[in-house]
Amino acid sequence: MTSRIAASADVDETAVIGDGSSVWNLSQIRENAVLGTNCIVGRGAYVGTGVRIGNNCKIQNDALVYEPAVLEDGVFIGPAVVLTNDQFPRAINPDGSLKSASDWEAVGVTLRHGSAVGARSVCVAPVTIGRWATVAAGAVVTKDVPDFALVAGVPARRIKWVGKAGVPLLDVGDGEWKCPSSGEMYIETDGRLRPADENLEEN
After folding, report:
1. How far apart are CA 129 and CA 148, in angstroms?
2. In this structure, are residues 71 and 77 in contact, taking their beta carbons and an 8 Å threshold?
């Protein structure tokens, strides 16, 4: 199986594109970026220098994934999402000179296994989006998101728990939650959620 790269895509020769992955029209993949197997990079998306993307990820149209972002396996990035990398953005230094790459330190966003970021959301680095968590469309994430959390708003706050299927969970009492789609059970302990068949130590 080979990768598919559209003729109008700009993929640097040092970038690594995994088998079965597709890079669509007008996308740009920068130097030393690594894209895993069976990934999709949509039209007009940007993947920065040295960004690491796992297997089976989807980056939708016009998303901006700035270095040094890390996406684990199975991550979804919605249309026009922005993953920032500058904590204190300025075009110029205090003396008025134009900033260069050596005048600031890039910080990244980490998206853990199975997480999803909805359309036009902004993740302000440095933050980590937990496993199977969901960021609602249009949210602005300024702090870490727990595993299985659904966050929304500006700034984003947890409003529900979600399961691996992405569907909000049902509270069945005594700290137990149930996915109405899959029937999978979850347990909440000290503000953290985990599948019922998974030990906290495994997280």
Report:
1. 9
2. yes
| Dist. CA 51–CA 125, nearest whole Å | 14
Residue 52 near residue 34 (C-beta atoms within 8 A): yes
SS3 label, residue 91: coil
Q: Is 144 in contact with 133 (CB distance < 8 Å)? A: no
Nearest Cα residue to 46 out of 18, 20, 85, 19: 85
DSSP code for 99: P
CB–CB of 135/154 below 8 Å?
A: no
pTM over cut 0.85? yes
Residue 61 neighbours by CB under 8 Å, 6+ apart: 24, 42, 43, 44, 45, 79, 80
Average pLDDT of every residue of the chain: 96
Q: What's the pLDDT tens digit per position in 108-157? A: 999 999 999 999 999 999 999 999 999 999 999 999 999 999 999 999 99
Identify the pLDDT of residue 200. Answer: 55
Cα angle 84, 32, 8; round to 5: 85
Q: Where are the beta strands (DSSP E) in 72-190?
A: 76-77, 82-83, 109-111, 116-117, 122-123, 127-129, 134-135, 140-141, 149-152, 157-161, 170-173, 176-178, 185-189
Average pLDDT score over residue span 34-60: 98
Are 112 and 131 in contact by the 8 Å Cβ rule? The answer is yes
